[in-house]
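Homework help board

Subject: predicted structure for assignment chain

Our instructor gave us this sequence and asked us to write out the predicted structure in C-alpha cell form, then describe one feature. I got the C-alpha cells but I'm not sure how to describe them. Can anyone check?
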Amino acid sequence: MPERLTLFLDRTRELRDLLFDEGVEFPCGGLSNCGGCAVRVVEGEVPADEEMRSVFSDAELAAGWRLGCRAAASGRVVLEIGQWQGAILTDESPLQFEPAEGLGVAIDLGTTTLVVQAVDLASGDVRAVRSALNPQAAYGADVMTRIGLDRPAELCRVIRSKLGEMVRDALCGGTAREILLAGNTVMHHLFCGVDVEPLTHAPFESPNLEERRFTAGELGWDVSGNPAAAFLPAIGGFVGSDVLCGMVAIGMLEEREPCALMDLGTNGEIVVGNRQGAVCASTAAGPAFEAGRIAMGMRAVRGAIDHVRVHGSALDCHVIGGGEARGVCGSGLVDAVAAGLDTGAIRPNGRLSNGARFPLLGDVSLSQRDIRELQLAKGAIGTGFDMLAAGRPVSRVYLAGAFGNYVDARSALRIGLVRGDPRQLTAAGNTSLRGARLLLLNPSRREEQIAGVIRRTRHVALAQDPEFMDRFGESLSFPAG
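My C-alpha cell output:
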C-alpha cells in the first residue's frame, strides 16, 4: 500500500508550502507545465483547476490526482505522494588543520540540497551537521528555471533565511569565528544579491565572480559573535566555488599526472589538470542525471529504482526502501540503459529494439524520449571531457556529488559517460563541503590556495566553441559494446 501523508491546513500556511516542507519538489517552479509534483488525494477536498485539467485526464482527476504546486485546501487532507526527502551527502573525513580557538562554519549551498557544518577549530572535528532541501527548489528544480523567473530578491531572501536558521541550529548557542560558503555561480549570485542576468544568455559569463563578504548581521542571521561570512569566488561561467573547493579537496594542482574532477548535475562541471595547471568548463547536460525530464524519473528516495543488473535474460532492479517501484533515479537510469545495451533492448544509436517502452519493474519503464534525454546529457559531458583532456591520458577521474557517489562505474563507462578503466573512477563524495572545511581549517594558506586555483585554472566556454557542437553530434551514440 502506498505511504500516506496527513496534513492539517489553517489560514497561516498554504498546502504548497506544507508539501515542500515534506520534501515535495516543484520541478518547473510552480508553472504547472510538467506534472512532476503530482499527488493523489485520499481524504479531504482539493479542487481541480484548469491547469490541472490540462495535465491530467478526466480519469486521473476522478482518481484524485492533483498538482502539488497548484493544490489548495483547508482542514485535514490525506495524500499519497511519491517524493520523500532522501539522504543528503555530507563529509566528515579527518583533514589537516591549523589549531585555533572557537568554532567555524562550512556551508555547501547546492542547487538541490544544503549542508551546514559547525567545526571545532581546535581539534578539526565536525561538531554538528545540519542538512536540508534548498528552499529555492520550490521555484524550479534547476538553476536556469530559477533565474528565468526573474525573482532574484525573493530567491535571495529564502536562501539566506533558511541558511541562517541552519547555522544557528548547528552552533547550538556557541559563538562562531567565521563562516565559509561554497556553491555554483548561480547560487553565489542569488545568495550575494548579484545580478544574474549575464548568466541567462550566451556567452553565460558574469563580471562578478569574486569572493563576497558579509557579517552575519548583514545577512539577517542571529548568530552569536556576529561572525564574518564569505562566499568563496567562482572560477568562470557556471564553474563556481563548489568546483574550486573540489579541486582543493582532491589536491588536483599538486598531482604529477593529469586527473579529472566531474560534478554531474543539471550543469555538468568538469576540470582536468595537475601541478602544471588546469582547464575547466561547464556543459548544459540537462537534469537527466538527477532523473529530471524522465517520465518516471524521481530523486533517489524511497520507491526509486537505483540499481539495475542483468541476470540471464531478465533485469534485477533494486528499489530504495523495498516495496513497489514508483520511478527511477539518476543512477538507476544509467544502469538501466547500460543493461538495455547489453541485452540488445537498446541499440547503439539509442533506438528501442522492441516497442515504444523499455520495461524495468512493475509499472516503471523508460520511453524513447527518456533514452534520448540521457543521450543528450552523456553526449555533452563526454564531449566536454574529451575536449578538456585534449588527448592527454588521465590517471584518475573523481566523480563528485550525490550522482557521482552512487552511479556504478561500469554502467557509466558502458553508456560512454566517462572514458577509461573502472579502476580509474573514484566516488569522491561531497568535495565542495570537504574543500570548504579544509579552507576553513587552514586560514594561513587559504588566500594563497584560492588565488592559486583562480590563477592556474583556465575556463573554456564550450557553448561558444564550434568544435564542441560538431563533436557533440558525433558523441550521441552509445558504445557498441
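Reply (TA_rk): Your C-alpha cells look well-formed. For the description, you could write something like this. The mean pLDDT is 90. That's the kind of observation they're looking for.
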